[in-house]
Write a structure and sequence with these properties.
The protein is an alpha+beta fold. It is built from 17 helices and 27 strands. Strands 1, 2, 3, 4, 5, 6, 7, 8, 9 and 10 form a ten-stranded mixed beta sheet that branches. Strands 18, 21, 22, 24, 25 and 27 form a six-stranded antiparallel beta sheet that branches. The longest helix has 27 residues.
């Protein structure tokens, strides 16, 4: 996938043993008309992959292009014409090196981005003019939003280029700050942009000082303080299942990634039997078809054959979550606006930040974290949303709305952790949702503890702490695919394992077949839209927790049932077609799907209106999914 400066993405198929020049020629033939309008020739085009400027004569495979089913390559324009090369040579003791620079200006409506390849002797002021020249061409081509186009009306000396939030001196040389093996991300801004950020922080600081002593806000703080220990325990579990960005970057070009491409092709080439309970091929096809409904690729690997990738099976229920979360972990709040003795990393300080999030109150630390995240991730600050703060040392869970494939690949290829480390002095690590970048599933994990056939089982058990037990009824006729929710920590896993432990949570079932009736843009009269909406809602429950019922006849809360037949027979279990073959036969089986969940035991867990068939769980944090249930039905 070749990404051009105007956000165009083109797919090409090529043998990775071919030289880079052959891929460049394919790209040129498809885009030369557009490129010529911008004064770009084939000789000016450079390709960048994983921070490296590609040499025309080197094979693609030598750069590990082809180690994934789709490799993202970025187009950069060679820009050294401002000062003749020989003039530069006179100023240098040795020939200047070439560096890849990514200059961006992000706005809520998109902004502008351009990759350029320049030599180490180019000055920042020349780099700014190079950017403006390219911006002018893209304005003429209609590729730029109005806010970014207005940069052309600003005198060039009032524009600044920043590296990791620090403005560069206009006479600084590229070689003074650019690295040899990574794309250097620079952000262009005006004095007005800087004033706007400073004003936002000051406004947040003043608003928080006013709000923090109000009785209503203190009620929210008290509630947040009470739940901090539990939220932090859940957060620690999440940290254990989320993937390290550094590890994902390393996997990008690993031999195991290439083996996974082959493994995926091999298993999907096999014809599924349709036996969802025992055939791993059928299970693989079902997962692939689930992901394809969300336009996502999926990879399979087999750890029994020595392949080592980070597994995503822990989060298959989150497939249709639109904005998947990430977690920034800091050791401290050093250098953060508003991080005074009153807002330092202690239980009260964290609880006040969480209360500000929940009540919609501005908080200077939260606002500063958003701004720094936006700069480090190269996205507009308006798209960053902090959703939770918890201990360990201090963790900020956040989402970035509408994160495109290109933006995800940019994050992987442009040293995101290095940029965040420059933004946050207390940076520890960045963890991301397992499905955000590269969903991969270990075939060896399909038959783990959580997978279970209830086809001929209809037993009942009493589960929960002594004196608070409730009946668990096994879902007869269903097949469960277990979700990997166990951490290996006995105290954290007691809610589910071992079965029969006094710490076990109650068992129940949650369906989403009617979810589409409450989703914007879903026509309830169109079965296909309702089917997709059901899958979407089934997954969305983990985006910060389950969602409360739209019709709260049994009190406000999350609705589920301890009786699996009630969920199935009353239209709550989604009925979804899963296409098992890719040929023209149209072979398809239909399955009902619902979630198996745990509900925290407690005298205050359920609303007073709850019945033996319908439970309304008062707090979304008191219900957790641990399995997806499938049952084959007739069309």
């Amino acid at each position: 996938c070749i990404c051009d400066a105007d956000t165009t993405e083109d797919l090409f198929t090529i043998d990775p043993n071919q030289p880079v020049l052959n891929l460049k020629k394919l790209f040129w033939e498809r885009t030369k008309t557009k490129q010529a309008k911008n004064g770009i020739t084939l000789e000016k085009i450079n390709f960048i992959y994983n921070g490296t400027i590609l040499d025309d004569d080197i094979r693609l495979s030598d750069y590990k292009i082809g180690s994934k089913k789709i490799s993202y390559v970025f187009v950069a324009i060679k820009s050294a014409e401002l000062i003749p090369f020989f003039s530069r040579m006179l100023q240098s003791r040795s020939p200047p090196k070439e560096h890849a620079i990514d200059i961006v200006h992000k706005t809520p409506n998109g902004g502008h981005e351009c990759y350029v390849v320049v030599d180490s002797d180019m000055e920042v002021r020349e780099l700014t003019n190079t950017y403006l020249t390219m911006l002018s061409d893209h304005v003429k081509g209609g590729y730029v939003d109005a806010e970014t186009a207005s940069l052309l009306t600003v005198a060039s000396h009032l524009l600044s280029l920043s590296l990791n939030g620090k403005v560069l001196d206009v006479y600084a040389r590229v070689g003074d700050f650019a690295t040899d093996d990574k794309v250097t991300l620079l952000q262009i801004s005006t004095e007005g942009d800087v004033r706007k950020r400073f004003s936002a922080l000051r406004k947040a600081e003043m608003e928080f000082r006013t709000k923090r002593n109000e009785d209503q806000f203190q009620v929210v703080v008290a509630k947040s303080l009470k739940s901090l220990k539990e939220r932090s325990s859940i957060g620690a579990s999440r940290l254990g299942t989320f993937h390290s960005v550094d590890h994902l970057v390393a996997e990008q070009t690993s031999s195991d990634a290439q083996s996974a491409v082959t493994c995926t092709a091999d298993i999907l080439a096999q014809k599924p039997t349709g036996d969802v309970g025992s055939d791993v091929v059928t299970a693989s096809h079902i997962l692939r078809n689930l992901f394809s409904q969300n336009n996502e690729e999926i990879e399979f690997y087999d750890s029994r054959k020595g392949m080592k990738l980070m597994d995503s099976s822990t989060s298959v229920q989150d497939l249709f979550v639109k904005d998947k979360p990430m977690i920034l972990r800091l050791t401290n709040l050093e250098g953060m606006t508003g991080a005074t003795e009153e807002t330092k990393v202690n239980e009260l300080g964290l609880s006040e930040m969480q209360a500000a999030i929940e009540s919609g109150t501005a908080h200077p630390v939260i606002e500063d974290v958003k701004i720094r995240l936006a700069q480090g991730l190269n996205v507009p600050v308006e798209r960053v949303r902090i959703t939770e703060v918890f201990q360990g040392s201090v963790c900020f869970q956040y989402t970035v709305s509408d994160l495109s494939s290109r933006e995800r690949q940019t994050m992987l290829q442009q040293d995101t952790t290095g940029r965040l480390r420059s933004q946050f002095p207390g940076f520890q690590d960045l963890k991301v949702h397992p499905l955000l970048f590269r969903p991969a599933f270990d075939l060896a994990l399909f038959d783990v503890r959580g997978n279970k056939s209830f086809v001929n089982l209809n037993n009942r058990f009493r589960v929960g702490p002594p004196g608070m037990e409730k009946t668990y009824t096994q879902p007869k006729g269903w097949i469960r695919y277990g979700l990997k929710v166990l951490t290996g920590n006995a105290s954290q896993d007691a809610w589910l394992h071992p079965f029969g432990d006094d710490g076990n949570w109650w068992r129940a079932f949650h369906g989403t077949a009617r979810a589409g009736r409450y989703m914007s843009g879903v026509d309830a009269s169109i079965p296909r839209q309702m089917e997709n909406a059901a899958l979407t809602a089934m997954a969305d429950i983990h985006n910060g927790g389950f969602q409360e019922a739209h019709v709260a006849a049994y009190g406000p809360g999350v609705y589920c049932s301890p009786d699996p037949t009630y969920v199935e027979n009353n239209g709550y279990a989604a009925k979804v077609p899963l296409y098992l073959n890719d040929d023209d036969s149209g072979s398809v089986k239909h399955f009902k799907i619902m979630l198996q969940v745990g509900v925290r035991p407690g005298s205050d867990t359920l609303t007073p209106q709850s019945t033996d068939k319908i439970w309304a769980v008062r707090d979304s944090k008191w219900i957790r999914s641990y399995g997806i249930l499938f049952k084959e039905v007739t069309a």
